[in-house]
Amino acid sequence: MYRTALRNVLAHKARLLMTTLAVLLGTAFVAGTLVFTDTLGSAMKSQNAKSYTDIAVTVSDPESARSIYGSGGTDSSAPVLTEDVRRKIAALPGAADARGVVSGFAGIADQHGRLIGDGFSTTGTNYVPGPDGSDARYPLVEGRGPTGSGEVALDSRTAQKGGFKVGDTVRVAVNGPVMQLKLTGIVHTNDPRVSAGGSLAAFDTATAQSLYLSPGRFSEVDIRSRPGTDDAALLTQVKGALPAGNDFSAQTGRQLAQDQDKMIAEATKGMSQALLVFAGISLFVGIFIIANTFTMLVAQRTRELALLRAVGASRKQITRSVLAEAVLIGAIASVAGLLAGTGIAAGLQWLLISAMDTGLPDGPLVIAPATVLTAVGTGVLVTVLAAWLPARRASRISPVAAMSSGDQPATQKSLLLRNAIGAVLALAGLGALAAGSASKATGLVAAGAGVVLLGVFVLTPLLSRPLIALFTPLLRRLYGMPGKLARENALRNPRRTAATASALTIGVTLITGLTVIGASVNQAVDKASATDLTADYTVAMANFSVLSSDVGTQIAKAPGVSASSVQRSVSVRVGDDTKWLTGVNADTIGSLVKLKMQEGSADALKHGQLLVSQGGDPGTQDLKLGDTLAVTYPDGTAGRLTVGGVLASDSGLTGTLAPDALIAPHSKPAAGAVGAAGAMAGLDKVLVKGEHGPSAQLKQALTDATGGNPLITVKSQQDLRDESRQMITSMLNIMYGLLGMSVVVAVLGVVNTMAMSVFERRREIGMLRAIGLDRRGVRRTVRLESLLISLLGGVLGIGLGVLIAWAANGLLRSSLPGLELVVPPLQLAGFLLAAAVIGLLAALWPARRAARLDILDSIKAA
Amino acid sequence: MTMTATAVHAAAGATGLSKVYGEGETRVVALDQVTVEFRRGEFTAIMGPSGSGKSTLMHCMAGLDTATSGSTRIGGTELVGLPDKALTKLRRDQIGFVFQAFNLLPTLNALENITLPMDIAGRKVDQAWLDRVVDTVGLSGRLTHRPSQLSGGQQQRVACARALASRPEIVFADEPTGNLDSRSGGEILSFLRNSVRELGQTVVMVTHDPVAASYADRVIFLADGRLVDELTMPTADSVLDRMRRFDAKGRTS
Ligand SMILES: Nc1ncnc2c1ncn2[C@@H]1O[C@H](COP(=O)(O)OP(=O)(O)OP(=O)(O)O)[C@@H](O)[C@H]1O
Ligand SMILES: [Mg+2]
Q1: Subunit contact B91:A768, Cβ cutoff 8 A
Q2: Do A771 and B117 lie within an 8 Å CB cutoff?
Q3: Are A145 and A135 in contact, with CB atoms under 8 Å apart?
Q4: Is pLDDT above 60 for A239?
Q5: Is A767 helix (H, G, I), strand (E, B) or coil?
């Protein structure tokens, strides 16, 4: 029996081509994902290992990071990493030396004042010259290290991007006005943040400390061990030397590297899982094609299989022989898919690292045994699963069928049972969707979506007739007889048509769903920003850290500004809890944001009172109108704040709002504490209204007011909207790209079905040619049938996509009030058109084959 | 009938028609310098042993196959050298064809199958003619049935009706009764003869059955690709007699 299977596969090579390709693409996607993420992960790990090789133990001050990136320290009396601490550590018996590190962010402007690199990984640090005057961590490429407050060194990539040479003046900014610094040297670094598109600015230690922390304070101390010292022993020594009372984290370098490895592994795993979802979709689409192919092969071989039965083969043997074919095809396709996937991963690596220079680390391709097993295993499994039903059907062929005529019967087995099952599934799914959407149950919506899809797939044979009938008047009018024949052919085997169309439906459903959700979110965001935010411009940091307090005052004084308000987060203590207050300008905030009140008046702010939101933090009790809060400010002073109003949940600004004039002066950390030399808490953003609305002039004035700091962004409402739109657009584009693979597989399915149909109907085609249908007519008939099948898939997909998007919108509505279903007609029409084009393209080759059939050969074909 | 009276010139003809398949070892001369005419309004039967070239002759004359040398005509049109498009049009408008089996599209009903050539051409159906053809075929009650709902004989009658529906210059039928029992075969043959006698059509039919051949006005005999004999106003007996003579000759030569 197995020899029969092998011979069959070989005999039907051409007819199995598309099926093999479909499995191949799916497994290639799986293998490509696994190989690429493994490779990336291993490259990142080896890069990571390199950056910790000479650090035995590292101590960091978590508080320092908070004071640089966040909003002021909370516990200001705790000890910090000072020069004294560093010296004490350096003097430990096991320590060779201890490096005090200060790090924060530093934006560097290019010649046009624009930020170099992306805002999130613009790094600033201190340059620690060794005995020879240079820093081993940042080897000099050119010039010398920075020694004074007016000097800076840059990494070579950044210097090159900005076109800077040693001796040039470079504009560098932290969170306040821009500094004009002299470039004294260009250094080399393999800091992953820098190579991944950021920038590095190195200051001398004193400058870095005053920029980021306070004189004499470090954010981190890195210790090298004396030869022969055990890292763990050194760690114990270091821990003993640290001042008590702060939660310094002390770790060995190896531990740190391991922790990082774990984070990398998690990140790559997350990425690989996300990609595998799409690979899974492609494989699922493949199932339809495989099932279709085997159904057709079994039907074409009815007589042959019946003959086998007649000469004594058992049902089991027949099933097994068909399944053996499936295993064989699955194995061949998966192995090819594995190879193709590895190729794709290699190509992707080359593209990202060499061609696009994204700064991702390079490394050898990693083909893990698990990858091989997963790719080949899923490929074979999917093929066998898909062939299961056709194989069982093959075994039920009665031996008598060997004697029957070979003509294709036009009548089909009744679809009654199938339709009943489909209707039940579809209705159950619809119910789950509606219920889940209303009750915001994500799981229920997901399950409902799955069941509805399944139900519709089961029902597609039934739906195919009316849906295809929708397009036929047009086809008949335009193409006459070929149009009619195409329609009849598309309907003659509803199961096959349905399976082919369903493969396309999956991709179209997901693409439509995403598009509709994206359009709905876009509209909701537009609406919200148009109604809630009345400010013309929002000034903020590009990296979401805080603005210097001065920015608020500078902007208020800028020409053309009619009103402005800061938004300053200050943490206060209420009993044992920490509460965040948002300081706003009591006089102007009402003209910049729509404050919608549930109770009380927004004017309460002007009387030194709070406006609060309710139901914000689960677990804490809601504040009510008239409540009084006893707070302790960061500077240690105590105060009493009264709730003067309750904000509505759809207010333009929510949280706990306080008059900035009242809380800002108390936001400096307590005097006396080291590192509290202190600035007031920084600003999240500044809202601005112009005298004459938004204008280029005003924007320039605001930019000037911030001293041209490249890290500070000035965005109009339109900019903010565009940004959100762009984010959604690029997210959609990535998803479209990933779903594209499933569409490609579906197209293979259409090609497959059409090619098989042409083969099955070659006698009919020959007869049609004999009685006078020309080649063009034959081509048209095939193409139009393919068009109808694709349109069927497209229409169902668009309908399902809108339905699922509607349900998903229900889930999103809680986080995006005002979200309504937006169905973009042009885009959806575009998808339908794309489905039509796909149908026509998929039929190109089968149609050509059909037109080229020799009339007499086809007629004689049994 | 007026048509029979005026049908003096040929509906189709071949001159020096040869068809050679393959080369060298596998070379087969299927037709060897055949010259033949089929007169308008005449029912001709082609007979001959298996492999004698009957189908090949029909295919070449119907523009389904190209001759190796010689020429063929349909009406006044020379087929040799005609491009595929023109040949297709010719088949559609001037030739009717009935195969031994599998003549109908399973997706169309009987009437749709009958009017298929006109539908392909986008031509209007001549309703009066169609009614007559359908009447002659005797299928009036079954026009909306699909082929799978018709018997083999009925299917062949539909095929004959289709071949005649576009009022072609000539109808070729290759063993149209080969798969039928004698009663159904008889119906088909009567129908073909009626279409010639009553509708004035021209029909050429290949058959192995002397009884079938007796329905024709004339029988031509092929052997080894050559036209070897001809019989007018045949009866089953006279045809059988001729066939026996060939058989004897074939065995002695
Ligand atoms: N496509 C082809 N390739 C090669 N030889 C062919 C081909 N078609 C027919 N022949 C040969 O040409 C000769 C004539 O064949 P043809 O089909 O015309 O015979 P026929 O008289 O119709 O026979 P039958 O009564 O069996 O149908 C035969 O010897 C056949 O083998
Ligand atoms: Mg023959």
Answers
A1: no
A2: yes
A3: yes
A4: yes
A5: helix
Q: SS3 for B215?
A: coil
User: Residue B34 — φ and ψ, nearest 5°?
Assistant: -85, 130
What is the rounded CA–CA span in Å between residue B92 and residue B120? 8
Nearest to A481 among B97, B103, B120 (CB): B120
DSSP letter for A410, please.
S
pLDDT, chain A, mean:
85
Top-ranked range on mean pLDDT: pick from A92-96, A344-348, A614-618: A344-348
Candidate from A411, A488, A777 with C-beta closest to B120: A777
Q: In this complex, is the C-beta atom of A411 within 8 Å of any C-beta atom belonging to chain B?
A: yes
ipTM: 0.87
Please tell me the distance between residue B205's alpha carbon and the centre of ligand 2 in angstroms: 11
Superfamily of domain B40-59+81-252: P-loop containing nucleotide triphosphate hydrolases (3.40.50.300)
Residues B239-247 have a mean pLDDT of 82
- Residue A723 identity (one-letter amino acid): E
DSSP A505: H
Distances (CA, A) of A329 to A164, A379, A463, A753, A816: 59, 9, 32, 17, 48
With a CB cutoff of 8 Å and minimum separation 6, the contacts of A638 are A630, A631, A632
Q: Which residue has the tokens 């082609």?
A: B46
Which residue in A328, A388, A285, A297 sits closest to A25, CA to CA? A285
With a Cβ cut-off of 6 Å, ligand 1 is lined by B 21-22, 28, 30, 48, 50-56
For residue A617, what pLDDT is reported? 57
Q: Does A527 touch chain B (CB under 8 A)?
A: no
Q: Kindly list the residues from chain A whose CB atom is less than 8 angstroms away from the CB atom of residue B179.
A: none
CB-nearest partner of A407 from B85, B102, B107: B102
Give pLDDT tens digits for A351-373. Answer: 887 777 666 777 888 888 999 99
**β-bridge partners, A152:** A183
Name the residue at shortest CA distance from atom 16 of ligand 1: B53
Q: Answer whether residue A510 shows pLDDT above 90.
A: yes
CA-based end-to-end distance of chain B = 45
| Buried b / exposed e along A655-691 (16+ C-beta atoms within 10 A) | bbbbbbebbbebbbbbeebbbbebbbbbbbbbbbbbe
Is some CB atom of chain A closer than 8 A to the CB atom of B88?
Answer: yes
Q: Does A769 touch chain B (CB under 8 A)?
A: yes
d(CA B41, CA B19): 27
Atom 2 (ligand 1) nearest CA: B21
